[in-house]
Give the backbone structure.
Amino acid sequence: MTFGDWEPQKRIEETYRTELQKLIDRFTGYLSALSISDPIEILDALRSYFSAEVFRETARAAASRMITGLFVDGARNWREAARESMRGREIYEALQNELQGPIGQRVRQLVRENSRLITSFDTARIGKGRTLAEEAADFINLEAYKGRRASAIAEDLRRQFPQVAQSRIDGLARTETSKASTALTRARSEEMHVSSYIWRATKDGRTRKSHRLMDGVIVFWEDPPAPESFLAIRSTLGHYNAGDCPNCRCYPQPVLRLDRIDWPHKVYSNGIIRPATQSRFAGLSQMQIRRAA
């Protein structure tokens, strides 16, 4: 198999985005049908919609389908890797039992986390940290302080809501699909005692310079880099693994066979990227395994 096989399937992200869009479209349609000229009533409608049980159930179903899709695709990759790996039997047995163990727990946790994010369209995990309702409340307060009429503020809310919601949908779908994929790959890696992965970047016009720098570098799960620091880029992201930061399209390729890697190879360890021989890397791997035990 090729390293591209480990990249999360775009169809899963697109399906997730479509389902989120439907949730927002329902509220937009509901709002358009109401003759409300009071912005506070619009805010109350927004809060009621997102707190309704039917919305929460729909959000949970959307999150579950996204996580399940990543779970199934990931298992397919690991089975393919098992056929090529000298650890085939071990990987097959782990895959058969994973829903009853830590992997199953991680799947359920991811569904809960994503359901919560959808029900508030909370962007704390994609860099803003404000819910749609909070932004609407702030907008109302600011415009009222300026002395604008309530009906004008309400009209602005009607017009701006779809645009603001769309940016949230795009960020949530892209970020959470990537984060969930990385989380599942890491959980499976840890269950199978695979301590490292190769950082893979998409390498197109939208790829961060810091992530281009990381492309092809071997990283230990327990010792993630701070990519922006290598280029002296001011950032609040800190240390993170491939695919685990806002709007990131990178992904981890687990290191399963050392004989498939050209040595010496770039390895990140303790804040430094440097070439390492296979024997040097094996020593670092043992240190990471002991540290994680």
Summary: The chain has two domains: 1-193, 195-293.
